[in-house]
């Protein structure tokens, strides 16, 4: 009846063989940690079939990045797709048993995660280009999860996806402790050329304001490429990125 039974790839029908189950309690819940942030497009839940099918009644699927209230305060899943690291199933009622025989999560992975990142310069040991693709949206610079260049003219950052993809969406997390406007005017460029460090590739989108510590997603008609560049054109700036996520529907 352990929680892990619900992700063992066995859609077992009997509680004591391949299902997870809580005790009879108020607001019983179960949570899966995907370990990184994904765009979840579909969740498949297998109920117990030998008895007690009503135990799943009223269960909510919640997806997000917070562990507040054990993740049960994250938004309720929307069929249009949601970004998140944690997938929760909760029955928000008194004295219920949550029984779950399998939970499957489907969606798009972040192509930039763990990719090779470089930038025009590096401000300090805390500011490596790789920090922007570590799967962590932490936005406080001192905690070491943001990339920062020096105050360069036309500063740039680039990630190598290691293969060519049809990129349709890029999400950017802004620094949260200061310097909100540094990110404004960034160009997102995508392609296969390393001419001018990749900064001559096709322009996919231009970044507008992003509030401190927030993540904003830029969607566009697909652009095919291996390299994703972010560049601040035409001014001296400290290019600061606390996470860059890249998504594609297909290769």
TrEMBL record:
Presence of the UniProt keyword Disulfide bond in the record: yes
Pfam families found in the cross-reference section: F5_F8_type_C_2
Example GO BP: regulation of cellular defense response
Molecular function per GO: fucose binding; metal ion binding
Domain F5/8 type C: 101-249
Keywords: Calcium, Disulfide bond, Lectin, Metal-binding
Domain of life per record: Eukaryota
Keyword Metal-binding: yes
Cited InterPro entries: BG_Antigen-Binding_Lectin, FA58C, FTP1, Galactose-bd-like_sf
Family: Belongs to the fucolectin family.
Known role: Acts as a defensive agent. Recognizes blood group fucosylated oligosaccharides including A, B, H and Lewis B-type antigens. Does not recognize Lewis A antigen and has low affinity for monovalent haptens.
Assembly, per entry: Homotrimer.
Protein name: F5/8 type C domain-containing protein
């Amino acid at each position: 009846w352990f929680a892990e039974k619900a992700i063992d790839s066995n859609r077992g029908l009997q509680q004591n063989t391949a299902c997870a189950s809580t005790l009879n309690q108020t607001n019983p819940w179960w949570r899966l940690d995907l370990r990184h942030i994904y765009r979840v497009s579909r969740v498949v839940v297998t109920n117990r079939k030998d008895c007690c099918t009503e135990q799943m009644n009223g269960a909510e699927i919640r997806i997000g990045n917070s562990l507040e209230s054990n993740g049960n305060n994250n938004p309720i899943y929307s069929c249009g797709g949601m970004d998140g690291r944690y997938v929760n199933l909760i029955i928000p009622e008194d004295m219920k048993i949550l029984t779950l025989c399998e939970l499957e999560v489907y969606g798009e992975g972040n192509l930039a995660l763990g990719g090779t990142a470089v930038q025009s310069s590096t401000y300090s040991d805390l500011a490596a280009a790789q920090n922007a693709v570590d799967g962590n949206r932490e936005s406080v610079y001192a905690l070491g999860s943001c990339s920062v260049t020096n105050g360069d003219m036309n500063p740039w950052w680039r990630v190598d996806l290691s293969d060519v993809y049809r990129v349709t969406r890029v999400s950017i997390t802004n620094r949260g402790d200061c310097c909100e406007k540094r990110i404004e005017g960034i160009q997102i460029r995508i392609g296969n050329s390393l001419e001018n460090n990749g900064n001559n590739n096709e322009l996919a989108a231009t970044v507008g304001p992003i509030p401190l510590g927030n993540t904003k997603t830029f969607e566009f008609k697909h652009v095919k490429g291996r390299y994703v560049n972010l560049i601040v054109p035409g001014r001296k700036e400290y290019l600061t990125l606390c996470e860059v996520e890249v998504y594609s529907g297909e290769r």
